[in-house]
Amino acid sequence: MFKQKRKKVVGFFSSLFLVFLLAACGSDDASNDSAEEESDSAVVEHSITGIEPGAGITVTTETAMEEYDQLSGWELEQSSTAAMIVELEKAIENEEPIVVTGWNPHWMFAKFDNLKYLEDPQNIYGDTEEIRSLAREGFEDENPNAYKLIDQFNWSVEDMESIMYESSETGQDIAEVSKQWVEDNPDKVDAWTAGVEDGNGETVELVSTPWDSERASSNVVAEVLRSKGFEVKITDVDVAVVFEALANGDADATLAAWMPNTHKDFYESIEGQFVDMGANLEGAKIGLVVPDYMDIDSIEDLEAK
User: Start and end of every ABC-type glycine betaine transport system substrate-binding domain (predicted)?
Assistant: First the structure.
């Protein structure tokens, strides 16, 4: 009987030991799972949600991925601006990590008030930028009043974003929203048209990129030019073609040159073959953007794959 009791006691402690052992292992697994959950880089599968191939921010992000050790092994998912926004909205709804290529002006900063740029210690994305107006050589001589109006065009990040946000929220085309914006902002329009004589139906060819930011500026200027008696045609093309069109004289002007960093290579490739009319918007910015609930502040907080 003693032996029987002894066996039961030994069996009890053996079982208890096994329980503690399994609990300890389970605790380690939980710790590992928790550590993985805390790694935003792992959760996003070491991928950046980007936009169209060839866009200035896409090219700059490819450079950043080469220069930052933390981005070693990462992938840049190139799709479209609309697809990027869908993924961003989905992540924010579920409070999930996501890293996207972002820029101001863009209506996503008006829609989502919890976005932040990751610090860029190597300054790959540059500091704040400006969007410049460029014209083909000879445009000022041939059409001085249209040139003067475009040269005097200047507005703010908030102006541009308000048009983009209104379009995204209402579903109205940016051309329609831009037309209403011009009607609602006579003081700014008066400044742009100061000293500009009415045209006689001369055609002005504007070339731009197909992004909402540039569509906003192009349509606003086009509307004001039309109010002064000019015919206006806007052609949306890839950014490389924007600069080629100016150099070849196939377009009169563009309002879409992001400098000094985003479109630097395109700008320098035809420098001397166009007229730089200066900034039409200051305070533009590009970089990697994340929701502020992610516990990272810098590109260097990301982890190599």
Answer: 45-183, 203-304
pLDDT value for 17: 43
pLDDT in tens, 11-50: 444 444 444 444 444 545 444 444 445 689 999 999 999 9
CA nearest 198: which of 225, 232, 228, 231?
228
Which residues in 89-202 belong to E strands, given as ranges? 100-104, 115-117, 129-136
Asked whether 267 and 56 are in contact (CB, 8 A), the reply is no
The token pair at 268 is: 């320098």
Q: What domains can you pick out in the chain, each with its CATH number? A: 44-126+288-301 (3.40.190.100), 129-283 (3.10.105.10)
What is the rounded distance in angstroms from the CA atom of residue 193 to the CA atom of residue 184? Answer: 15
Task: Work out the number of other CB atoms within 10 angstroms of the CB of residue 109.
Answer: 18
Q: What is the pTM of this model?
A: 0.77
